[in-house]
Design goal:
It contains three helices and five strands, in the order ααβββββα. The protein is an alpha+beta fold and 136 residues long. It has a single domain (9-131), classed as Peptide Deformylase (Alpha-Beta Complex). The chain has a five-stranded antiparallel sheet. It is globular.
Length: 136
């Protein structure tokens, strides 16, 4: 189900609670909401739809992927960039990394460890910041 986008900075500043297999519907809602906002959005965290759980959805270009309890375990190639956010007006400067390695649980609740680079890595870093209560 498509959910409204949360713009409450106090709520968005909270650290996310760990997700469980019981949170599958939240991931589906997050994927639906990302799809509905794809013209201006490439990733979302659960707190952006008003749920304080550690779940993100990321546009991989060819499909959208939900990730539960994502943790960046390696990063390299720091650079400065500007980003926007559906929950905030305007763009802001931030530091990102060209390459990351991420651990997360997939929709089948299987643990994954993947390497990402470039634009996809930047999106994941932005959404993982949301889970820590960090708003660009």
């Amino acid at each position: 189900m498509v959910k409204p986008v949360c713009k409450d900075v106090l709520f968005l500043s909270k650290k996310a609670e760990p997700a469980t297999q019981a949170d599958m519907q939240i991931a589906l809602d997050l994927l639906d909401t990302l799809k509905a906002n794809e013209a201006g959005c490439v990733g979302m965290a659960a707190n952006m739809i008003g749920v304080n759980k550690s779940i993100i959805a990321v546009s991989m270009g060819f499909m959208n992927v939900a990730m539960f309890n994502p943790v960046i375990v390696k990063k390299s190639g720091p650079y400065e960039t500007e980003e926007g956010c559906l929950s905030l007006a305007g763009v802001r400067g931030t530091k990102r990394y060209q390459e990351i390695e991420l651990e997360y649980y997939d929709m089948s609740w299987k643990k994954q460890r993947q390497k990402y680079s470039g634009w996809i890595a930047q999106i994941i870093q932005h959404e993982c910041d949301h889970l820590k209560g960090i708003i660009i």
